[in-house]
Amino acid sequence: MRSMRPFLPWVVWGVAALAYAIAIINRSSLAALGPAAQDHFGIDATTLAAFPVIQLVVYAVLQIPVGVLLDRFGSTVLILAGGILMTIGQVAMATVADVWLAILARVLVGAGDACMFISVMRLLPEWFAVRQLPTVSQLTGLIGQAGQLVSVVPLALVVSNLGWMAGFSGISATVFLVSLLAFFVVRDRPGMGTGFERVTGRLGSLSRNARSLATAPLTGAVVVSPPATEMIETQQADGKRTLRFWGKARRLLSLPGVRLAYWVHFTSPFAATVFLLLWGLPFLTGGVGLSPSTARGLLTLTVLSSMFAGLVLGPLSSRFVERRVWINVWITLGIVVTWVAILLWPGPPPMWLIVVLLVVMPLGGPASMISFEVSRSHTPRSFIGFGTGLVNTAGFTSALLTILLIGLVLDLQGAGSPDNYSLGAFKLAFAVQIPFWALGLTMIFIEQRRTRRWMQKHGRRLR
């Protein structure tokens, strides 16, 4: 009689992924509310851009410190801490009237959001087999995109019909309930207790008897374990071994595979992040001239495209391990070509080209998940949280810089408010993405060659 596969890994992952989806809702809660936020607070484009920029700055800056805390305290603690911060931040966002207090609220939301994704990714190697990780990682991203879908349409409808306070109060209540669920369900690894069990000091039988799916790989699967910590340089200070913040960063970045993962994440997802987080709706309505309802409907297309891509890219990156970086590169080139066609099109782009953009551009998000597979292949296990946080800063760094630059370029053209938006101004503003793509692709090619040489030197196969 065949024994049942353990179900607990899927339950733990499901609740953690749900917490990540809620974080995405919080992160993107202004995605379809740009004009509404300008009217609510009476602000221009640069100030509007400050909301997501400051939020992303906080997110990106905290990734590495959160990674250090993650290696020390585990995923459960960080997921719960992130939930508390986002709850407080959205309560403030719902109630304050001053724009600077609202920005402070987004700081709290960004800090809470910073805890979520890398905490979920840290759980996966503890509960799943190596051959399953690419697929489960993409499924995690897919569930997160479901949160993006909620922020695009339902939240906008709630705010427009029930008001600003009702919309953001509803988000804060949802965050609290999901955090409470995580408190009773999420475990760092088999044999460890939930948050509730840690507080009470009683380990339940389900936690005590939990089993991981991390069994031996099937015959023919390509599996190479991460390098040992000893394979990276050891740094000494005053005769003592140091693993403090900058020491760990330098040691980790001495691995070309980690640098490759960083640039992979830097390059492919930022265009979709910029579009969905802030500037997509203003571009479609104020630039292209679509109605708000049509624009929101098209934004849901980006989320559906990203979700479908996640289902496809997980098995692909697992099957073609040696070519997974090239999958990311070709998707990025497709995004670049589509955007350049939009920018060079004389006059308003036709609807079919807009649809192509909104189908192709979101593929960069699932493609960026490949960076975490690359990072996992090259990061020593004792550095995994730190390494995931380091790589995760990349795409958000490029995104926040692009968001800010688009707002500045619009203001410099006198097109910084909904009344003054124009297609020509948006085309010039969105052109600021091109140098980021050029830098990212160049560094990918450089670091991939260096990684290949490093792998050959150490007798390893994965890039």
Can you give keywords for this protein?
about 475 residues, about 0% strand, mainly alpha, globular, about 75% helix, 21 helices, 2 strands, two-stranded antiparallel ribbon, Growth Hormone, Chain: A
In short:
The protein has helices at 8-27, 34-41, 45-73, 75-95, 99-127, 133-152, 154-162, 164-185, 195-200, 205-208, 245-253, 256-267, 270-287, 292-319, 324-344, 351-360, 364-368, 370-378, 384-412, 423-430, 433-457; strands at residues 236-237, 240-241.
Description of the structure:
74% of the residues lie in helices and 1% in strands. It has 463 residues and is mostly helical. The chain has one domain: Growth Hormone, Chain: A. It has a two-stranded antiparallel ribbon. Strand 1 (236-237) and strand 2 form a beta hairpin. The longest helix has 29 residues, at 45-73.
What is the secondary structure topology, with strand pairs?
Layout: H1 8-27, H2 34-41, H3 45-73, H4 75-95, H5 99-127, H6 133-152, H7 154-162, H8 164-185, H9 195-200, H10 205-208, E1 236-237, E2 240-241, H11 245-253, H12 256-267, H13 270-287, H14 292-319, H15 324-344, H16 351-360, H17 364-368, H18 370-378, H19 384-412, H20 423-430, H21 433-457
Antiparallel strand pairs: 1-2
Helix pairs in contact: 1-4, 1-5, 1-6, 1-8, 3-4, 3-5, 3-19, 4-5, 4-8, 5-6, 5-19, 6-14, 7-8, 12-18, 12-19, 12-21, 13-14, 13-19, 14-16, 15-16, 15-21, 18-19, 19-20
